[in-house]
Amino acid sequence: DKLKQSAETPQLSKGGARNGPHDLTQGPITKTLLTFALPTLGSSVLQSLNGSINAIWIGQFLGERGLAATTNANIIMFLLVAAVFGFGMAATILIGQNMGRRDVDAVRRTLGSAFSLFLVISVATVLVGLMTAPAILRLLRTPAEVFDLALAYLRVIFIAMIPGFLGVLMTMALRGTGDSLTPLKFMALGSVVDVVLNPVFILGLGPAPKLGIEGSAVATLIANSVSLLGVVAYIYARDLPIRLRGPEWRYLLPDGGVLRTILAKGVPMGMQMFVVTGSALVMIGLVNRHGTGTTAAYGATNQLWTYIQMPAMAIGAAVSAMVAQNIGAGKWERVDQITRAGVIANLWLTGALVAVVAAVDQHVLWLFLGNDTASIGIATRINLLASWSFILFGVSMVLAATARANGAVVGPLVILAIALLPVRLGFATSLEPRLGADAIWWSFPVSSLVSMLLSLAYYRWGGWRKAKMMGKPSHAEELATPSEIPACPPSPVADPDAAPLR
After folding, report:
1. Taking the CA atoms of the chain, what radius of gyration do you get in angstroms?
2. Is the pTM of this model over 0.85?
3. Contacts of 493 (CB under 8 A, 6+ apart)
């Protein structure tokens, strides 16, 4: 029986760039961290490029009314994604901890419960969205001239969210097993399909019908479906730990303990997205007071900041996956080392990107602002005063990722809320009469500094190490013997990151 179980159990490879699950509990920490983070960074870049190219298609073929319509619709999409983001993160951490314990059965039980939850949420989103889309658009005060276009786009894009949500869950689950390269490949597949099919369905090229703005949403629906089917087929072809077979299909009936954990931990993590969104909405209101030129300049710098933030986000995801596996394996001595490596990697990568953007911003901003020298000058000043704050904020992201990997989710949420709401907005509004628009730009480094200091204090004294992700699942004993992943031999490469975080 042991030989049969061993033959059926997927093997973990040491941290590297190959496809499949990876053991993140051994080997050189910095190398493993960067190898995991870089494909995640690539996925973020692809996603942003995909959105930018589709916006170009819509703008070129349908004009500013089409672009305005999708902009209004995308606000709704972002809020819905924020609502499920936390649940996916909670499932990813659970999967990572169970991988660290070498308990494949618990990995599959978590995936089954999460998949059912996402499926229910996705279907409910479609039904509610189709019924309430007109009311939502009116609530957003969508201009009358783009209302019908936005509504037509929304009605198709809601359906596209079913394979979209499930695909996101599967790629996040793969990252929980230590595999960040496979999600990159299927993100690339979906992006290519989306970009290629957008003009086909917008214009009705070849045998495709001419659908206008709805064609862009149809392209996204097809791309999401292709990506989801592709990643599922790959998971079963490679017999990866997150596949379900035979009696394991019962795990699609949600386990009470797993589901409660995903909901309890996922809600605070999802709330972080709402805090960020709320802060951004208030901030744009402050910016709008200073005229169209300042608003345009702020929008252009935000395009650059999207890419500046990506390294810290990718490193945070890598730190979360690595820490979760090591906590599951009981290797607490490596947790501080991983966090330290993540902080240093963020300082180098984000710092280098900030320097590059500062050096070339005037040569790039014209892509968004044309020949408007006044707006370009404002955007350059915004970037000079505020862009370096993302180096500090990246430190907070790494520290929060470590705490969340052990189930401590309220502390990071409170810190983020303090930094973005009373600190950032309070600083900007109170000093705006004296400093003008500069008060808004200075509020970014001020809030990032506060966030970093609070995160360091929480990491040192906050008691997050005593948190617990979950207890024993409700039906842990339903299958005879849980599968275990055999431990890999220690890496022969010396670990240069052995010094603890101080």
Report:
1. 23
2. no
3. 27, 28, 31
Helix axes 426-435, 256-288, angle to 10 degrees: 10
**Residue in this structure with the two tokens 């190490």, named with its chain if needed:** 465
pLDDT at 17 over 60: no
Taking the C-alpha atoms of residue 433 and residue 429, their distance in angstroms, rounded to an integer, is: 8
Q: Give the residue carrying structure tokens 């670990």.
A: 495
d(CA 424, CA 419): 6
pLDDT at residue number 475: 47
Predicted confidence (pLDDT) at residue 112 exceeds the cutoff of 60: yes
User: Considering only CA atoms, which of 155, 164, 23 is closest in space to residue 85?
Assistant: 164
Q: By CB neighbour count within 10 A (0-12 exposed, 13-18 middle, 19+ buried), where does 113 fall?
A: buried
The token pair that represents 93 in the structure block? 């951490």
Instruction: Enter the tokens of residue 455.
Output: 């995160």
CA distance 435 to 401: 35
The Cα–Cα gap between 382 and 399 comes to 27
pLDDT at 52 over 90: no
How does DSSP assign 441-493, residue by residue? Answer: HHHHHHHHHHHHHHHHHHHHHS-GGG--S----TTTTSSSS--BPPPPPPPSS
Pair of tokens at residue 389: 């704050």
**Secondary structure element (H or E) that encloses residue 69, with its range:** helix 29-100
Q: What residue type is assigned to position 36 of the chain?
A: F
The 8-class DSSP code of residue 1 comes to -
